[in-house]
Amino acid sequence: MSGPTIPGVYILDKDDFPNSIVPVSTCITAFIGYTEKHDAQGDSVLQNPFFVSNFAEFEKVFGGAPKSLFNIDAMESEPGFVLTMNSAPHLLYYAVKHFFLNGGRECYIVSVGDYNSSFDKADFIGDSGDEQARGLMALSTELRPTILVIPEAILFNKEDCAEIQRAMLKHSAEEARFAILDVHDGFMERNTEVPEEDVISLFRNNIGNEYLQHGAAYYPWVDTSVTDRNEITF
């Protein structure tokens, strides 16, 4: 249609309601680790990324906290007792709980086994000979996650932890994600006078020089009260 041909003032009507912007999550975290179970309405989601939007949904599919067992032994040199852990530690449940308590809304969970499973780094980083993709390889099928977390990497020895974290950085570079890493033995104070004993120096040496722009590490570990007193019993 041609424009006005007669000089003067004209009113151009525009839509009162422009196209709305649909809010979508641009930061979705993916957690990989061991869970009590991996059952979604009768179907196993072992090594399959599963989307959850609240902590109640996480517990429904992946179960509750690990049951920590301890031994109490009398001290030999002086009166008193020594408390030692007698069960494998697991961290994923508490990491996810902390995520939702601190405002997290949506995340993916990749359960690599239950609490009775033996710790195996291949559960997290996968193996080229696997018939079913595991860990990071399983997560590659999902496009939405942008943040990657493996809390239980620090439960391995330094070498295996570093291998898992290097795989996290490589995966993040390939999948346009960002890895959150924990410093192995991050509860210890730094010893800058002896680099071979300094936790940060060891971490930097073990993590290597590749894909560093795709991750960040935090030190020291943070002490929290994510577990309530009434959750602890004899």
Reconstruct the topology from this structure:
Layout: E1 29-33, E2 39-40, E3 43-44, E4 50-52, H1 55-62, E5 70-74, E6 81-85, H2 92-101, E7 107-111, H3 121-125, H4 136-139, E8 147-149, H5 158-175, E9 178-182, H6 199-207, E10 215-218
Parallel strand pairs: 1-7, 1-8, 8-9, 9-10
Antiparallel strand pairs: 2-3, 4-7, 5-6
Characterization of this structure:
This protein has 234 residues and is of the alpha/beta class. It is built from 6 helices and 10 strands; from the N terminus they run ββββαββαβααβαβαβ. The chain has a 6-stranded mixed β-sheet, sandwiched between helices. A two-stranded antiparallel ribbon has the order 2-3. It has a two-stranded antiparallel sheet with strand order 5-6. Helix 5 links the parallel strand 8 (147-149) and strand 9 (178-182). It is globular and about 105 Å long. 25% of the residues are buried. The mean pLDDT is 89.
